[in-house]
Amino acid sequence: MIRGILDALARPNRIAFALPLFALILLLAQVPSASGMVVTLRVPGDYGSIAAAIADAPDHAVIEIAAGAYRESLVIGRPLTLRAAEGAQVTLVAPSDDTPAIAIRDTDAVSIEGLTIVGGEYGIFVTNSQAIKIQENTVLDSRLAGIKVRLGAADIENNSVINAQAPYGFGIHVTNTMQWPESRVTGNIVFGNAHGGIYTNMTSMIHINDNIVRQNGEYGIAVTEMSHADVLGNTVASTTGIGINVLDMSMALVCDNLVVDTGSDIDLHGIRNGNGITVDYHSEAFLSGNTIAGSALNGLSVLYGSIAFLHENQISDSMDQSVYVDESVVEEGSGCETDH
């Protein structure tokens, strides 16, 4: 179509060829493959719902959402950006607790930016997808997890993930990513989630850095089931159970974290918890520069065939022991600058 218009403009004496320049530019803007321009679709300006805009969007489009509350469950299966208009308060309310508010499936290069997302089985669910960016959102009151990544990879940055519901709710859950690129969980506020704050199992390298993780149940940050992780520079406060847990044949570099006021609970297996940091069940952790204070049980527990390398950690005010070791090895380690 565009080529036909350009050919027509080159031939004289045709009234139809006097197409105004601005109309030609408008047409070109609708064909990103010809012009290189990004298509922006506006809700509700161009479409009455976010789902309708997603259904009509070409690859790499931007869907910009005006202020308001939208009761929708969204599925994204192509590269695009979903974002709030500048300065707009956009609230997406999931219509059911049995489906995600936003599901990203079988794609790549999706970005979710600046939304408030309420309810749903998951606030944002990523599966079989990579190069996903989830940034500057507020995710509230999800049933199973505020943000979940399964069989994929995502950068989860500068979000607030709050009040995932009892009894199973996690703030951020990354699982089954061993065959996928690295994920990053950075700069988030993870608060008041019933079962845990940030939880990983069976992951490739995941970077859990510079988050504020407060008042979560059972786990503040958990690296479990053969996961590999960097856990650096986080504040983990007032967890009911274990502040940072490295469990089940996992490996982690745990450095420069502040872990304070870990409370006591009895887990599903009848085991009393209350440790600032635990390394458990044939896991290996390098711990350097951490400050652990006010644990209801032990500041650090190293358990059941695990190995912990310690370097310049500050442990104080534990109700039981600063460091408790059971059937495990504790050795002098080195700083976080070492490539382990």
Sequence stretches where pLDDT stays below 50 over 5 or more residues: 1-34
State which percent range the strand residues make up.
Answer: over 45%
The helicity comes to under 10%
What structural class do you assign from the helix and strand content? mainly beta
Shape: elongated
Task: Describe the overall structure.
The chain has 340 residues and is mainly beta. It has a domain at 1-36. It is built from four helices and 35 strands. Strand 1, helix 4 (50-56) and strand 2 (61-65) form a beta-alpha-beta unit. Mean pLDDT is 90; it is low at 1-34.
Keywords:
340 residues; mainly beta; 4 helices; elongated
SSE layout and pairing:
Elements: H1 2-9, H2 21-29, H3 32-35, E1 40-43, H4 50-56, E2 61-65, E3 68-71, E4 74-76, E5 80-84, E6 90-93, E7 102-105, E8 110-113, E9 116-118, E10 122-135, E11 138-140, E12 145-157, E13 160-162, E14 170-175, E15 183-186, E16 189-191, E17 196-201, E18 205-209, E19 212-214, E20 217-224, E21 228-232, E22 235-237, E23 240-247, E24 251-255, E25 258-260, E26 265-266, E27 272-273, E28 275-280, E29 284-288, E30 291-293, E31 300-303, E32 307-311, E33 314-316, E34 323-326, E35 329-332
Parallel strand pairs: 1-2, 2-5, 3-6, 4-7, 5-8, 6-9, 7-10, 8-10, 9-11, 10-12, 11-13, 12-14, 12-15, 13-16, 14-17, 15-18, 16-19, 17-20, 18-21, 19-22, 20-23, 21-24, 22-25, 23-28, 24-29, 25-30, 28-31, 29-32, 30-33, 31-34, 32-35
Antiparallel strand pairs: 26-27
